[in-house]
Design a protein that fits this description.
Elements lengths: L12 H4 L5 H5 L3 H7 L1 H4 L23 E9 L5 E9 L8 E7 L10 H10 L3 E5 L17 H16 L4 E11 L2 H11 L6 E4 L4 H7 L7 H19 L20 H10 L21 H4 L19 E4 L7 H10 L17
Length: 350
């Protein structure tokens, strides 16, 4: 999961007293830090949310854009909720280029996706931000469930919707995937050539990060333990027990909270980016269900990524972002043509 900027925040004097290299810590996953004993590393009283927005406004609106709430069906007849952003004064002659924008994993369209869609509409694109299935206003039970194939299908369903609108040129549709949605839109694009151009921002490969955590810091045995615990939990749910959630963003900060979780908290648990969808509980936002999250273990979005060529791919990552490894991996796997010169910015140069 990510926010609109997952680069490292400015160094804090209290944190620096630990003597630990901040960049090294940001490369560790929560699981890895737990294994190493986070409580012994972070012994400072720094338990307060910090403003890491750098002036960004997640809830930005524009007087140059009109917004329409829309819904449309997936191929499996489930409903997807979206916001359609249309530039004011657009010539409705069927020539407009369009983009579908997906939110971070565990988020909703009001978190990052609306902002990106608004900004792209200001540049002349018709932009559609969507709630992934099981999240926000889209269909799916239980809430916060994980099903990567249906997430990818939501992007193709968005292309169905955009490509049948009178103001959109069907051959000029692309997409932006933020955080986990970067891996979902790549999964969709591999089998949907109607997505003519794809960009990802602070992308997470949700398969790899669940199988082995950041920087391959999770062992196979740890992975098996997670899978076994989820499998045992299925019995309780099958017999009518509660659907538990886990992971996502911490509900409170402590002196031992990991820096990555501090970034998440600063966005998802404060007025900077907090959104609780209708009917949802703020205690469960961003947190996937325990028994479904292991489905990410079978998710390999970068396999066959070279088949997207020659359609353009753009991977955007901060140079200190803890998720940078996934953009680098996708870039290495993507087929020609690739460019590293001044005409194209690759993930290595951002």
């Amino acid at each position: 999961m990510s926010q609109d900027n997952d680069t490292a925040p400015p160094s804090d004097p209290q944190t620096d007293k630990t003597g630990i290299d901040r960049r090294l810590l940001l490369k560790m996953s929560g699981a890895a830090v737990a294994t190493l004993g986070a409580s012994s590393i972070f012994n400072t009283p720094f338990a307060k949310a910090q403003d890491m927005s750098n002036g960004a406004n997640n809830f930005y609106t524009s007087d140059k854009v009109t917004v329409h709430k829309v819904t449309f069906k997936t191929q499996y007849q489930t409903m997807v909720a979206g916001n359609l952003f249309v530039p004011k004064g657009l010539d409705l002659n069927g020539k407009a280029a369009a983009l579908v924008v997906g939110h971070p994993m565990g988020a909703v369209k009001e978190q990052s996706a609306n902002l990106y869609a608004t900004k792209m509409a200001e540049q002349g694109f018709v932009a559609l931000s969507i709630d992934l299935p099981f999240w926000g206003g889209s269909d799916g039970q239980p809430r916060n469930a994980v099903l990567p194939d249906l997430y990818a299908e939501a992007f193709s369903a968005a292309v169905d919707y955009l490509g049948t609108q009178a103001l959109v040129a069907p051959h000029r549709i692309g997409g932006i995937g933020i955080c986990g949605s970067g891996s979902f839109i790549i999964s969709a694009a591999k089998i949907d050539p109607r997505l003519r151009a794809i960009a990802t921002v602070s992308m997470y490969d949700m398969g790899t990060v669940n199988r082995q955590a950041l920087n391959a810091s999770m062992s196979v045995e740890q992975r098996k333990d997670i899978i076994a615990a989820a499998a045992r939990k299925r019995y309780a749910e099958f017999e009518g027990g509660p659907v538990d959630v886990a992971g996502g963003t911490d509900l409170e900060l402590t002196a031992t909270t990991h820096p990555i979780q501090r970034e998440f908290y600063d966005f998802y648990r404060t007025s900077r980016g907090e959104v609780t969808p209708a009917g949802a509980s703020p205690e469960r936002t961003t947190k996937p269900t325990v028994t479904s999250n292991i489905k990410f273990m079978n998710f390999y979005p970068f396999n066959d990524i070279e088949t997207i060529s020659p359609r353009p791919l753009l991977f955007i990552s901060g140079d200190q972002a803890h998720s940078k490894e996934f953009s680098e991996d996708a870039y290495k796997r993507a087929a020609e043509p690739t460019r590293d010169d001044d005409d194209v910015i690759s993930c290595r140069e951002v």
